[in-house]
TrEMBL record:
Full protein name: Transcriptional regulator, TetR family
One of the Pfam families matching this protein, by short name: TetR_N
Organism: Pseudomonas segetis
Record-linked InterPro entries: Homeodomain-like_sf, HTH-type_Tx_Regulator, HTH_TetR, TetR
DNA-binding interval(s): 28-47
Signal peptide: none
Keyword entries, A-Z: DNA-binding
Keyword DNA-binding: yes
PROSITE patterns documented for this protein: HTH_TETR_2 (PS50977)
GO molecular function, one term: DNA binding
Domain HTH tetR-type: from-to ranges: 5-65
Family annotation (SUPFAM superfamilies): Homeodomain-like
């Protein structure tokens, strides 16, 4: 029989569910405790406030992204790796979508989180730069060093603002879908279209189509 998650873990998972569905600013510790059927005092025994819960969730998101945003060891990256990176990004964005939606507010509210996010952003940019350069070294992308740098920065801007863009477009902070995030991944891939090597163009374009959700599906 599977073990029942301990209260601390249940608080983390319940908070993530509520933050994602209702938006972090709409959820209080009392809401979380009520949702779980526990007393506020029980929640405060494990987390002193909502910021501490958010910090724990960010650590998990950070650890997740750090685990996959790196070059494969001992070889050049392949198209299979490209698919892995894309699916991993999509999964992380969807699982922790409240972080993307409410990022500016979260960082303004917690200087320690803001500093941690700054360092995380630097690592992500370095990792993405190395991966894009790896695809160039493998002959999948044909780009100069300056173009790789621009692609890295533009990709980061799209990925970190896509959820907020969707909320602005729809006038809501809650009704997102994984398909909407999938289109964000496609927007990043679209930046590469003019730099794909001829010998892999068919395979890369087929991969692109897996993420091309029509805009009219959610506009």
């Amino acid at each position: 029989m599977a073990a029942v998650p301990k209260t601390r873990e249940r608080i983390i998972q319940a908070s993530l569910e509520l933050f994602n569905s209702q938006g972090e600013r709409s959820v209080t510790t009392n809401h979380i405790a009520e949702f779980m059927g526990i007393s506020p005092g029980n929640l405060y025994y494990h987390f002193r406030n909502k910021q501490a819960i958010i910090a724990e969730l960010f650590i998990r998101y950070e650890t997740d992204v750090d685990s996959f945003l790196r070059l494969p060891e001992g070889r050049e990256p392949s198209l299979e790796d490209k698919n892995f990176y894309l699916e991993s990004l999509l999964e992380a964005m969807w699982r922790y979508r409240f972080l993307h939606r409410d990022l500016e507010h979260l960082l303004d509210s917690d200087p320690l989180l803001a500093e941690r996010y700054r360092l995380f952003s630097q690592r992500c940019l370095q990792g993405a730069l190395a991966i894009y350069q790896g695809f160039c070294d493998a002959g999948i992308l044909l780009m100069t060093a300056e173009q790789v740098e621009a692609l890295t920065l533009n990709s980061w801007i799209i990925l970190t603002s896509w959820v907020r863009f969707l909320c602005t477009l729809q006038g809501t902070s809650g009704d997102l879908s994984e398909e909407m995030l999938r289109r964000g991944i496609y927007q990043v891939m679209a930046l590469e279209i003019g730099f794909i090597a001829p010998q892999v163009r068919a395979e890369v374009e087929a991969l692109h189509q897996r993420y091309c959700v029509p805009l009219q599906a959610f506009v």
